[in-house]
Amino acid sequence: MKKRILLSMLVLLLMSTSAAAAHPGRTDSKGGHTCRTNCERWGLKYGEYHYHNGGSSSSSSGGSAASKSSAPKSSSSSASKPKESKPAYVKSGLKVFINGSALQFGSDPIIENNTNLVPLREIAERMGAQVSWNKSAGAIGVQRENYKMTLTLGSKTVYYNGKAETIAAPPRVINGVTYVPVQVFARGLGASLSYDASANALRITL
User: Fold this and answer.
1) What was the pLDDT predicted at 20?
2) Which domain holds residue 132?
3) Within this chain, do residues 99 and 180 fall inside the same structural domain, yes or no?
4) Predicted structure pTM score
5) CA angle 89, 168, 99 (to 5 degrees)
6) Are residues 44 and 111 in the same domain?
7) Is residue 145 classed exposed, middle or buried when 0-12, 13-18 and 19+ CB atoms within 10 A define those classes?
């Protein structure tokens, strides 16, 4: 009788130990189920399918698998070249004569905003004038006999023998060459100018 009682107690003890090691949830025909309660307590993830008999566990998808979406390939269009902007000036083709002799330019005269601009030094020195340059002030001095003029890069104000006047366009430097309006040679260096439109020719007479 005592043996039966001890055997019954041993069976109950084994069943209680097994129950303590498990966690709530019915198992399926394979001996496993999906964890829904106190999963972290048992070292499981919520929705993880596992076995109570020591089988390997697997994570449940818990729903339909996300379909793989492939991003559409973006067609790389060839970058169009930017339109080249036209320069602010163009070569004028102006011919210059000093006392009847044609001047051969090293730098071509240009036209900008309907104003003829010519290389200052080439014409001034051909007229017998001296050209000086004050780099710190950006000022250009030109003198011929008793005529003296002072110009400043980027400024329309010019001084003829110390008297300020306004010219059509400011002196500017292009490719290392200083360009000025043709009018400065008449007022600044005492020359007379005449323009032949049919021949596109400027005649300077001293």
Assistant:
1) 43
2) 90-205
3) yes
4) 0.58
5) 85
6) no
7) exposed
